[in-house]
Amino acid sequence: MTVDPWRITGQPQIDSYVERHVQRAVLLVNELAVDQAHGRKVAPPATGPDRRTAIQEALATAGLPRSESLTPADADALAVVAAELRPVFGAGARTESMIEGLNQLLVRHAAVPNLHGQPDRPPVLAFHRADASLVDAWTADAATALAMVIGVGQGARLRSCEATSCARTFFDTTRNASRRFCGLSCQNRAKASAYRQRRAAKTD
């Protein structure tokens, strides 16, 4: 029996827990640190209230829980975090250049695995202290999840869109890690561009 590195824990519920934090990292980067998307330039929100709105809307769209305690000041701090997380995506196997930055985030935001519990519920694994601020909690969880993906040899799944004029990031969960684009629109744009290039080559 061969153990898939991504399923190394043997417990899908833990894998999905890590994946949820990776997806939140993707969301923060795409909403707060990307200036090209789907073939055009975009302006990331520049104020705390706008950043907060963008994060909340993106969480809802992704099916992740919104946080009513998220403040505009938190959103500003998360924009800084998003910029620091951005180099992790698209590095492929060349992770050395961004490992130090990720390690610094883990230390600065006090990432520490521990169990959070309530009297009437089972304990829940977290990557931050129970008394952590929202920014520290989100950053510690996201950075730890990214480090876990990289640490089991799956860093190439942390991707950037390969379409022209798109810098959106994504977590490639395909079986053979073959996904190249952030979504269908960029995939179609890339196919159309390749078709035009082939047609042009034939007429030369």
Summarize the structure.
Helix content is 50%, strand content 10%.
Characterization of this structure:
The chain has 204 residues and is mainly α. The protein has a single domain (10-158), classed as Jann2411-like fold (Orthogonal Bundle), CATH 1.10.3300.10. The protein is 50% helix and 10% strand. The protein has 6 helices and 6 strands; from the N terminus they run αββαααββαββα. The protein has helices spanning 12-32, 48-62, 72-85, 96-108, 134-151, 184-203, and strands at residues 36-37, 40-41, 114-118, 121-126, 158-160, 169-171. The strands form 3 sheets. It has a two-stranded antiparallel sheet with strand order 1-2. Strands 3-4 form a two-stranded antiparallel sheet. β1 and β2 form a beta hairpin.
Would you spell out the secondary-structure blueprint of this structure?
Layout: H1 12-32, E1 36-37, E2 40-41, H2 48-62, H3 72-85, H4 96-108, E3 114-118, E4 121-126, H5 134-151, E5 158-160, E6 169-171, H6 184-203
Antiparallel strand pairs: 1-2, 3-4, 5-6
Helix pairs in contact: 1-2, 1-3, 1-5, 2-3, 3-5, 4-5
Protein name: RNA-binding Zn ribbon-like protein
InterPro entries: ABATE, ABATE_dom_sf, Znf_CGNR
Pfam families: zf-CGNR
